[in-house]
Write a structure and sequence with these properties.
368 residues; alpha/beta; globular; 10 strands; TIM Barrel
Length: 368
Amino acid sequence: MTRIGLRHKFFSGCACCEPAPLAADAGVSRRRFLTGSAAVLGAGVTGPALLPARAAAQAKPPRIDVHHHIIPPAQVQALASQGRSSPPPKWSLAMSLEDMDKAGVTTSITSILNPGVWFGKVNEESRKLARDCNEYAANLGRDHPGRFGFFAAIPLPDTEGSLREIEYSLDTLKADGIALWTTYTGKYLGDAAFVPVFEELNRRKAVIYTHPTTAPCCASIVPGVPPSTIEYATDTTRTVASLLFGDGRTATRFPDIRWIWSHSGGTIPFLTSRFEELAGRKKDQLPGGTLPILKKYYYEVAQGNTPGQLAALLKLVTTSQVMFGSDYPFRPAKEAVDGLVDYKFSDADMRVIDYENAAKLIPRLKAS
């Protein structure tokens, strides 16, 4: 495969653990990959051995995971062509389904790994990679009804390519929303350069799921500590700050976008007083302050489900804005389930987090 743009210098998958070995079948063609997956499913995942687990899952209230990664073969090949020093984690369709069943996850809304499809240059290869990954994700949903939806990748900051892929993925492939990363070549999402894309997403009242990545400033600040350990949570906060205070005025200019933030909002709940103080000095930009905007956003709980994290988040928002997320394959979905159970939410609140908020944002899930 032809190299795509600039070479990445870091492993920026969703990664809050060390990367596992590359899957043995990762480089196969899309057709061969899907055929092989179907064979595995026919032999085991949908076979008699897992039927009791499926039946048990269906008997319980539904659980929708909005932070579940897949690694399409086209993305594996693209990452390899960039010469990344670390391979992507081991992943297969059968592995996803097995983890979902263990945690009682009815449906996973998938997204691809960092760094998505952007490798530093506007070109047709990034556009093609987005299209290939989105078609792969859409096929998972068609082949396994009720088990998968997806947030589509777009080649931001390529405006023309992004608008084209938004139209195709939402109108033709019926994606559930758009997946974005917190920063692109040093520009955060509130940058005025992204306004044309957000105008279209606001017009569509689109759902945007946002995942952190490694900021150019901060790949190796503390020796021995990877960016995912500290910087991912911080980078979510940076991009939210850019929406609120950036030159695009994105938070107030495009109020109909429905945002989902990863990892219980990163460090947002801990910095609201600082946001409010800054808003007080920018009353012309944010006359109502930042809290009404932050309270409208949605926050999923992958790697944000310890008692302290949940307590901080629930001082900012109610459970009406909290969603279930796992961060698979970097963390098992059972980890997020256990964190929510340990917090001792009521049955009603658990249902809101597990299912009702996702169904509110994505109405087709009500029928899943």
